[in-house]
Amino acid sequence: MKTRGYVHHFITSFVLMSAAAVALKGFFLPEQTGLLLLDTGLVPAMYTDVIAFALPLAIAVCALLAFVELTSIVPVVVCFSLYTLLSGIALFQGLHFDCGCYLPGSLESEVYSELEPQFIVLLCVTLITAGLHFFNTRHPLHTTTHLA
Q1: CB 89 within 8 A of CB 53
Q2: How far is 92 from 28, CA to CA, in rounded Å?
Q3: pTM recorded for the entire structure
Q4: Residue 42 DSSP class
Q5: pLDDT of 74-130, one tens digit each?
Q6: Residue 32 Cα distances to 68, 80, 98, 139, angstroms
Q7: Per-residue pLDDT averaged across 13-39, rounded?
Q8: 39 exposure class (CB count in 10 Å sphere: 0-12, 13-18, 19+)
Q9: Phi, psi dihedrals of residue 29, rounded to the nearest 5°
């Protein structure tokens, strides 16, 4: 994606690096995404491992395609929205409350203790990415054609 100026370049880099960070977290800790998928009841248990691997793969591919300018930033917005939706549904269902039934250091304790900050950060990044898409479509970069 072509950038115009330092601020636009910084925001574009921030969005793509955030997508890379979410993808890396998803690749190295797929059990956290799988736990959220299972506990929210969005996906049957037999598909959680596949979807827990497919979500970070999708955001990595979309960010890479946006980086090499083969697509717009819309697929990255959609992938961030899926992650935000997953965290938002878990918050809506009340999974972030500490009931005292999880052992400290367990997977459930780790995932649910950072669920609310994760949702807020993902929501902010999703809104910034949507704003970047809006700015890119509102003010398209026109290239001049050179005729020989």
Answers
A1: no
A2: 26
A3: 0.80
A4: S
A5: 999 999 999 999 999 999 988 776 666 777 777 887 888 888 999 999 999 999 999
A6: 30, 16, 17, 39
A7: 92
A8: middle
A9: -130, 60
